[in-house]
Each structure stands twice: as C-alpha cells, then as structure tokens.
Amino acid sequence: MGTWGLRPFENDDAADWVFGLEDDGLAAVTAALRTDEGYLEAPEAAEAVAAAAAVGVVLGVPVESAEEVDEWAAGADPGEVRLLAAEAAAALDRVLDGSELAELHDEAGNDDWRTSTAALRDGLRAAGGS
What string of pLDDT tens digits covers the 130 residues of the chain? Predict the structure, then answer.
C-alpha cells in the first residue's frame, strides 16, 4: 500500500480518487459507495471512505477534507447529495467490518482511524436523517 494516513484523503488511493471526483462529480461518489459484496481490498475501501467523506463535506459533517473536495462540495447540490448519506454510512460499515484497509490500520495500532471513520459514519447517519 502506498502512502496512507488516518484521514480520509491521506492515502494514495483516495488522492487518486479525487481526480475522478473532479472529472465525474457525483457519479464518482456513487460508484465508490457501491462496493461489491464480500471482502474489500484496501484501494476499494479507501475510495469508499473518500467518497463518504466527500458526502460529509457537502452535508456539514465534521471531516478533514482536501482542497479539491471542498471545491467540488461548494458546487454540489446538498439535496441530491443528502440522498447518498445512508448509502455512504453503509459503505463505511462495510469498510470498518470487512476490509483490508481496516485490517492494515488495526495491525498498525491506528485506533484513531477506526474512531474517526465511525464518527464520520455516525455524522452521515445524522445528516441524512436516518
């Protein structure tokens, strides 16, 4: 795995995903949140976390963002993005419960990653009204 940190956009896979967000907008978010069933490899999980965080930025959930994500969020339709809040929270459940990314953070003793990812999930649930 390339460079990675505790925040949603602090790894290579998430940073690469941001380029897709700039190009494809909400379609990139939707695609990243619709993870396949079963075990999630680290790149797919990192993209799902980044997409969920992008949803959170639009909805005012406290999350450390990236400049490009903030720029996209400023032009996004909050009502349209709010419809993805429950799906984003569910994607984070999958990442936390069955992904290589979670295992890597657990092995490294990064309890803060699990805590902040769960907080993002809970914030999305509250912001989405579910």
Answer: 455 678 898 889 999 999 999 889 999 999 999 987 788 999 999 999 999 999 999 999 999 999 999 999 999 999 999 999 999 999 999 999 989 999 999 998 888 999 999 999 999 999 986 5
pTM: 0.93
**What is the token pair recorded at 65?**
């963002």
Q: Phi and psi (nearest 5°) for 78?
A: -55, -35
